[in-house]
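Weekly modeling sync, notes
Attendees: S.R. (lead), two postdocs, one rotation student

Agenda item 3: backlog of single-chain predictions. S.R. asked that every request posted to the team notebook include the full sequence so nobody has to chase files. The rotation student volunteered to paste the first one in as an example of the format we agreed on. Action items at the bottom.

Example entry:
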Amino acid sequence: MIRSSLPELVRASGRSWWEARYSSGRVTREWDVVTGAAFVPQLVESARWDELEHEGLVGLRLLCPDGSVAELASKEDFRLFQFKVGGIAAGSGTQMSWCSAHVIGAVVDASGLCVCRAWETSEHRLLPFEDNVFAMRYRNIGAIALASLGVAI
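Predicted structure, as returned to the notebook:
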């Protein structure tokens, strides 16, 4: 078993990670929901947010490799979300993927207003912002697929 603190593991991975908190007190970390993953976060590429239980989800954290942490909370179920912004390029038999930003958010009201925090990988910074899930201006994302993210308004 690897004996490292959570901040050390996040720092060693070189990427950001989400952590979900439930009204029952249970906490699920991104690497907990990766099929077949050992507790070695630096070897995990991504987890399946869409397979996470969203009922009772009241808090969401973004743990960043520089040691910073963002946390959002909601009093209502199905209002918290996370996603990664990036891409995949293929050519000449090779494939390259990248993550430009890792975003967590909380929908505030029925108009789609949301508060968000983003770890911007190239800039190595945590950015707070407000936006709207029906027309996300951040990085020109546009409307986000709410059902895929476990969000219900």
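Discussion: group reviewed the output briefly. The beta strands are 17-22, 27-29, 57-63, 69-73, 80-91, 94-107, 113-120, 125-132.
Action items: rotation student to repeat for the remaining queue; S.R. to check formatting next week.
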